[in-house]
């Protein structure tokens, strides 16, 4: 009898360890960030330096760095921005898969938290004093039906493929499963196609940002002036695998007398190499419609090159709109080819 009890206890101790690799519900959600739809830096939106006025509604990448150059009749201006998700920064990617997929209030709020980023940017001012323009931004995605962890079997497929090749499951803290001797590209490519072709689904994001000019140099300035607050809400609706419809509303300089509303509609043509966007936005600062277009080319090693051309209100609204071009080089965290 005592021998039977001893064997039962030993089996109970060993069974969880043997099954944990197969039955564990714990994953790292940042293993499954796809290389699609990289949205604008919220700090650049706050500074009115986003490439286009109609913004993407897609979920942000956990980390993104942007180098840009803007050209207008007034000047040529370089700039930098950095975006990061605090949840990613502090190692919050380890989650229960069932908990992440839960539609309870707690599950929904945690998904919003994982897709919230903070952003900072800086560009030289044009007033000849050596001052700089600085911006801070906050952006979150409220509704993201294109999330591969939420709406695909990608995590299960990756786990099963690793197990099929006899590869031990990755540690919970591992954010990359591409260097384990197993080709998983077909599963990620399939997930990208599925998520981009969810016809009728709408991604909804919102943001807030503040921009200002420094008094003097960016490091030696004594304070800030011309502070402007911007709020925005944007949606991105998939019309199939190749097209998205975009809509954005921005409240500009909301806490000062110069407050204005900007609204716009756009369309995105998606390909595996580059995405093309066109827009028409109404700007309340000069009460005019402004067209714009952009191309975003996917490059190796999680980078992309974006070029845009738009019209914008002139320094004096009586002078009419001016032409503005911009080029961005962006690096971001994702599972890239």
From TrEMBL:
Signal peptide: 1-21
UniProt-recorded name of the protein: Outer membrane protein
Organism listed in the record: Corallococcus coralloides (strain ATCC 25202 / DSM 2259 / NBRC 100086 / M2)
Keywords from the UniProt entry: Signal
């Amino acid at each position: 009898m005592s021998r039977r009890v001893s064997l039962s206890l030993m089996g109970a101790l060993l069974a969880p360890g043997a099954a944990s690799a197969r039955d564990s519900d714990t994953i790292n959600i940042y293993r499954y960030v796809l290389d699609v739809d990289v949205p604008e830096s919220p700090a650049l939106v706050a500074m009115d330096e986003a490439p286009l006025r109609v913004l993407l509604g897609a979920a942000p990448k956990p980390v993104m760095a942007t180098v840009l150059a803007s050209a207008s009749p007034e000047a040529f201006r370089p700039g930098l921005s950095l975006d990061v998700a605090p949840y990613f920064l502090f190692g919050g990617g380890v989650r229960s898969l069932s908990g992440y997929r839960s539609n309870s209030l707690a599950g929904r709020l945690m998904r919003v938290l994982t897709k919230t980023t903070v952003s900072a940017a800086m560009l030289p001012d044009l007033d000849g004093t050596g001052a700089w323009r600085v911006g801070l931004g906050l952006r979150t995605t409220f509704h993201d039906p294109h999330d591969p962890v939420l709406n695909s079997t990608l995590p299960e497929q990756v786990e099963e493929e690793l197990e099929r090749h006899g590869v031990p499951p990755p540690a919970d803290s591992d954010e990359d499963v591409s260097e384990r001797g197993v080709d998983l590209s077909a599963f990620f490519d399939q997930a990208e196609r599925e998520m981009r072709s969810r016809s009728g689904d709408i991604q909804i994001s919102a943001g807030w940002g503040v921009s200002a000019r420094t008094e003097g140099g960016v490091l030696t300035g004594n304070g800030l002036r011309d502070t402007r607050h911007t709020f925005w809400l944007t949606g991105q609706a998939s019309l199939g695998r190749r097209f998205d419809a975009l809509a954005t509303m921005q409240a500009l300089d909301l806490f000062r007398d110069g407050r204005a509303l900007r609204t716009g509609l756009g369309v995105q043509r998606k390909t595996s190499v580059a995405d093309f966007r066109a827009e028409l936005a109404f700007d309340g600062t000069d009460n005019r419609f402004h067209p714009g277009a952009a191309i975003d080319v996917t490059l190796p090693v999680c980078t992309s090159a974006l070029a845009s051309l738009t019209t914008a209100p002139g320094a004096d609204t009586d002078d009419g709109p001016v032409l503005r071009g911009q080029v961005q080089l962006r690096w971001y965290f994702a599972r890239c080819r």
